[in-house]
User: What shape does this take?
Amino acid sequence: MGNPKLMDYHLFLDEAGDTTFYGKGKKNIIGTNGVSNVFILGMIQVKDPLDEVRDKINSLQEKITKDEYYHVPSVLKKINKSGYYLHATDDLPEIRKEMFDLMKTINCSFEAVVGRKNIERYETKHKGKEEYFYADLLSHLLKNKLTKHDKLVMHISERGKSTKNHNLALAFLKAKQRFAKINGNKEMRTNVVFNVNYPTKDPLLNLADYFCWTIQRVFEKGEIRYYNFIKEQVKLVLDLYDTEKYDDWKNYYDNKKNPLTAENKISPLKH
Assistant: This one.
């Protein structure tokens, strides 16, 4: 075997949704007033030369910056503050269409872990700390990535306490424990290096953001048009806490045998 190419061991990770559980008076506000039902972590592996893909996305961002048709207040504010970068939640529908068309031209695969928000689980399993919730999801993304390469570089979109070094180390430790539980004495040869960055700095994080947003639309809205458009690139979605579907791995969704559908929309919880 020859030396691995750069894109073989670099992954780009972003999230969708929020980690809000409580409102005033510690009231459960999951799924209300713009608070999400799920929190999603997703990572993308780009199989084209990384800088070529960065150039493609940068070119689109530059086009949007220069095109007066897109100069609504939200876009202008971003241009003036940090420089324009693609972010699916904020982007105009016309911009989204341009980005989705661009995504189809990129050879890449995407995996995501969906964490349904539940107060009891949050307080017991995650000790009421959003960083533990984050680490739990991240460990599931990493657990099957520990044998192929000597090194894996995870480029991660910055998120407060959740992406501090000690919490990412905790996620890696959990991933190794999960790997050992599944694989016994099989050798773990991969050392994971975390590179925390900002979406303004690396356009490949913006690509991951769009994939995460696509999965979020399915689970929050039952909206599958975006997912169907890029489904071939969505390798795996794990609905981690859907205990009702644990039998026969039915909570693992791929793009062929078990794709996501509008039925994956989370039903409103009775608080």
